[in-house]
């Protein structure tokens, strides 16, 4: 089968389509014929080597965290899934390789794909959707009537946060680039501001801040109400290690106000995402669909910024 991999760190050109053995599902595992997968911003950081001192997985390394497709085979002990089932899911925590023709994953990493989405639309949501559900419900406990600020509101995670924040009854303020202001407003944000021209001190107070930018967190932390919570989902791209240390310190000394987590959703959380999508609380935002052969271009464009929602890889496209 085909799989996108890289055998050295560097620019997007290190990505290659390699022929590798099709995996066999072991006990408790499910083999999925992948129809589509998404390109996540964290993948560009890993591919560049900025985290090689933190994540020491060997090379060659696959890329891609989530996927949507159909079950083709199951390992021993699997009762939930059967050949032909339409599913979506994530790779095991801190592993990658979903941009491939097939993946074999534990059955707990899967849920039924939403019936109201096609596979290309659905591929935009497993990682970003479960991340936002965990951030706003489990970590921040966002309540109806509270004020939510979303930084990076046009991106893969930010756009979902705007939607879910409104569905939970919050007043949503969104920061995004100038060309995306109207688009983010259409997602349901009550106030949309240009992040380039809006200073933190110009903003009011917020009960919850969801940050997908990673920079200037001190200034935004001061925008919290007395009982406010900041959920940080990104590191400063220019100072990743220092940013990780700083965020870890804040999380340790003030865990009530500073929420950190590494997204590792359960099967129940994935099933909750399916229900939220089918209920209309969350809808996918696909910027561009690429063929597998164009995955390097997807990485280049993602690093350039300005993405609305998610880039999706169509494994069925030649």
Task: Describe this protein's structure.
With 318 residues, the protein is an alpha/beta fold. It folds into two domains: 2-125 and 284-314, Quinone Oxidoreductase, Chain A, domain 1; 127-259, Rossmann fold. It contains nine helices and 16 strands. Helix 3 (126-139) crosses helix 4 (156-167). The radius of gyration is 19 Å and the shape is globular. The mean pLDDT is 94.
Query: Which class do the helix and strand fractions yield?
Result: alpha/beta
CA radius of gyration: 19 Å
Total domain modules? 2
The low-pLDDT segments are none
Characterize the biggest β-sheet: 7 strands, mixed
Q: Output the CATH topology of the largest domain.
A: Quinone Oxidoreductase, Chain A, domain 1
The first-to-last residue Cα distance is 14 Å
Provide a concise account of the structure shown.
The chain is of the alpha/beta class and 318 residues long. It has helices at 41-48, 119-122, 126-139, 156-167, 181-186, 217-221, 240-253, 267-279, 295-304, and strands at residues 2-6, 16-19, 29-39, 61-62, 66-74, 86-90, 102-106, 110-112, 147-151, 171-176, 191-194, 206-211, 224-232, 258-259, 286-291, 310-314. It folds into two domains: 2-125 and 284-314, Medium-chain alcohol dehydrogenases, catalytic domain (Quinone Oxidoreductase, Chain A, domain 1); 127-259, Rossmann fold.
Strand and helix layout:
Layout: E1 2-6, E2 16-19, E3 29-39, H1 41-48, E4 61-62, E5 66-74, E6 86-90, E7 102-106, E8 110-112, H2 119-122, H3 126-139, E9 147-151, H4 156-167, E10 171-176, H5 181-186, E11 191-194, E12 206-211, H6 217-221, E13 224-232, H7 240-253, E14 258-259, H8 267-279, E15 286-291, H9 295-304, E16 310-314
Parallel strand pairs: 9-10, 9-12, 10-11, 12-13, 13-14, 15-16
Antiparallel strand pairs: 1-2, 1-4, 3-5, 3-7, 3-16, 5-6, 6-8
Helix pairs in contact: 3-4
């Amino acid at each position: 089968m085909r799989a996108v991999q890289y055998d050295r760190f560097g620019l997007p050109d290190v990505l290659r389509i390699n022929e590798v053995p099709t995996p066999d599902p072991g006990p408790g595992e499910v083999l999925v014929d992948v129809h589509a997968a998404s390109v996540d911003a964290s993948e560009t950081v890993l591919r560049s080597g900025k985290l090689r001192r933190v994540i020491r997985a060997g090379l060659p390394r696959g890329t891609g965290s989530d996927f949507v497709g159909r079950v083709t085979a199951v390992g021993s002990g699997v009762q939930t899934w059967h050949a032909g089932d339409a599913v979506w899911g994530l790779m095991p925590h801190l592993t990658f390789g979903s941009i491939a023709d097939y993946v074999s994953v534990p059955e707990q990493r899967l849920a039924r794909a939403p019936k109201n989405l096609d596979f290309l639309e659905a591929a935009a949501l497993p990682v970003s959707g479960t991340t936002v559900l965990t951030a706003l419900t489990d970590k921040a406990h966002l309540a109806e009537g509270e004020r939510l600020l979303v930084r990076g509101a046009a991106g893969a995670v930010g756009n979902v946060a705007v939607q879910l924040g409104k569905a939970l009854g919050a007043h949503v303020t969104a920061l995004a680039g100038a060309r995306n202001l109207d688009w983010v407003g259409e997602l349901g944000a009550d106030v949309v501001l240009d992040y380039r021209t809006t200073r933190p001190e110009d903003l009011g107070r917020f009960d919850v801040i969801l940050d997908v930018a990673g920079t200037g967190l001190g200034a935004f932390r001061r925008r919290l109400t007395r009982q406010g919570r900041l959920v940080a989902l990104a590191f400063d791209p220019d100072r990743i290690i220092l940013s990780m240390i700083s965020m870890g310190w804040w999380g340790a000394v003030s865990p009530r106000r500073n929420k950190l987590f590494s997204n590792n959703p359960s099967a129940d959380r994935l099933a909750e995402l399916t229900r939220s999508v089918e209920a209309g609380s969350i809808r996918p935002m696909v910027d561009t669909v690429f063929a597998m052969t164009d995955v390097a271009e997807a990485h280049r464009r993602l690093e350039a910024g300005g993405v609305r929602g998610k880039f999706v890889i169509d494994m069925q496209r030649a």
